[in-house]
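input
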Amino acid sequence: MKQPNITLKDDGSGNKALSHPRYYSIEFLRIFAIFSVILLHVGSHIDTDLKKLILEALHSNTWHLHYAVELFFLIGGFFLYHGLSKHPALTIFARIKKLWLRLIPGMLFAFVVLAGIGRKDWWDFTFVLPLLSGTALPPHTLQWGDWFIGTYFWSSCLYLGILSLKGPSKWVWVGILVYVSLRLYGKDMKIPTPFNVVFWIDMLRSVSCMGLGITAAFLRDRLPSPHSIPARISLTGLEGLLLYMLFNSLYRASRVHFSLVEILVSFMLLLICFTLNAGYISTFLNRMKGIWLISRYTFSFLIAHMIMMGMTLHFKGFHWSPTNQAIFVIGGGILLGIIEYHIVERLFSKLTKRLIC
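output
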């Protein structure tokens, strides 16, 4: 299969890395997912009419925006697999260290802000540093959404170890993990609190979805990119159908119902189609380089909205109206996310390149 624009460049650690084309269509999905998560939290924890207005406009009674988290995990698994070929010289421990150094600055920033306002106690720092929040050590470090970061980190470590195995055995293990975690995901397992929520269910979500993302990347690398007009038209129709399923499974759940497996499979196919770059929708999105100007902030928006939501809950909404609280969380989260990205993450990214060996 011909890969466009693949070159060798220095990855900042003295190793040679493969430079793959940037898929702005996937960046578009990240933007869609992060704002869906923010809307979910605002609509669930602030008594505002925002959720009602959106659902009325879409002629729906409910939404399932929590599936946006599954989309995040799938994208994470997809690029975890591609990262193995992008940085072939890195050891598994260097990859884990790189991931850890990518996640920890934002977590520390959120912890310092929330501890500064009294939302968290300073001695809880030990939960932040090893990035164990959201997995085996309760309580949640930020008490708001950081389980995603912890489970993503540990699932990534798990799959990095499996993908380092030689031969086809690694794909057997990936298949077993995906099958078992999907079978158990959502089951009412009788495991003592807090592990039934903090570790069990959330880790199952992460392991199953990241495994499916890895599988999607594996299949994508073995598919040719069709260039004939009929094939491109067919793929455009498939892309449109998958986008329809994505939007309706999240925002119009009461009108169009899909099972969990159908949703996850549609997410997989959407990632494959968008990175094949053969349909007219994916081709259009992949040419929109301006998408990156927003998508680079997605992790920062996640961290920042956790901070703004934590502040709102801690100060009992500042005695503001629900509408003003929603504006504070959404607007403040966007502004704080941009600031956090440029001041914290970009500063630490330079340090990361020096620390990875």
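quick obs: The chain has a mean pLDDT of 81.
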